[in-house]
# Entry
Amino acid sequence: MTPQPSGPRKPFGELTPWAEPAWYRGLPSPYYNSTHEQLRVAIREWCDEHTNDVGNRWEEDGKIDPAVYQQLAKDGLLVAFAFGAHVPKEWAQKDGTVFGGVKVEDWDGFHDMILIDELNRNGSLGTGQGLLGGLQIGTPPIYNFGSLELQKRVLPEIMSGKKRICLAITEPEAGSDVKNLSCEAKRSADGKHFIVNGTKKWITNGIYSDYFTTAVRTSGKAGETAGISFLLIPKGPGVTCKRMLMSGQWCAGTTFVTFEDVMVPVENLIGKENAGFKMIMTNFNHERLMIIYVGHRLARCAIEDAMVYAQKRKVFGKRLIDSEVIRSKFANMARLVEAQQAWIESIVYAVKNLSHEEGNARLGGTTALLKANCSLVLEVVAREAVQILGGIGHTRGGQGERIERIKRDVPVCSLSSPSQGCMKLTSSLLLQGVAIPGGSEEVLMDFGVRSELRMAMAQMEARSSKL
# Structure
């Protein structure tokens, strides 16, 4: 029997205004049922035990705790995070569930969203990325396009936590322009190996990883979409990893990777040779959704901590929250975040009810626009939260810990009145941990418009042909 959407609920989680989504606060929703509530309780308890208090320590140490990664594997969470919205039955636990008692046949995109949302309640982008960033984007190409032999060979050791994986696409000279990658893979004289030479930059989890799902050029030249392939490259002779020093996400293991005459068995080719560009584009949609979920929860964290502080901090004889100016700031933050929640849920629902192919075709542009919007909203919220906390918002650790960390992971800009919709960038931009990965705002907004125009033109032509 399929679980049905439930009506009004008891409030769950934090009661601070806008700290939680509306359905957490007890409002009815058509999107969520008892299995989502069940998962919400289970993952919150898990995060409270294992990750919610580690953000500052891991960031300062510059590394994650491997024991927590092994706990993810033991509890079946690596499988859940790796497969996202569609967990294959063969990867369910022995009792037929995924996590938190949710049956594999009931698992959907909203369960995936809840997991990612809850994991990031500690306000540390580095924690979630350090644990799962590579797995979530490095594994899909293997199970979506890899041969059955490759899947059977590597997925069990990845899902068991014995080996780690990451995605290696971005290059120093290419950036977001994937077709310009030049990392080269040539077949050996005997045809049994690809010989890989080139570099990859800003690779999340690279220093932790045993496998690199790598975009390489097997033919053609930089600037051409044809000739790009996917290879699974094991860490070994010729593979060098160097930790990069970033403005934020210090425990994410961001890495500069060099491949020098690396011998990769041809059996490690993922999908068809020279057909990797389409696979990369397909992989981007869920990657962008994941970034959206993370950025959205970070915005709620910032609002929550700013509100708690504003209710107890007294200046000039009254609490900050008693100031009309401060309440106006919260009003503007809340309207942005709550509106964005509705947009997110509408896309997750659409993905759930479209085939994989149709979802990629019809939702790519909209997802790109939402991802751009998410980083812009987080910029506003982070900046306003820092304004409310003052010096505490610039102090590592303590009551402003989450806000200080969040504002390091997005550009904190000089903003005019949000109602004017005008934002002015200062010359000092911090690490754009939400704005840049998966495509920068400018690239995604342009892509979103072009995608919608293409679809509209195709629909107009189809309609006119029937007249």
Summary: The longest strand covers residues 193-203. The chain has a mean pLDDT of 90. The two ends are 44 Å apart (CA to CA). Residues 276-312 form the longest helix (37 residues).
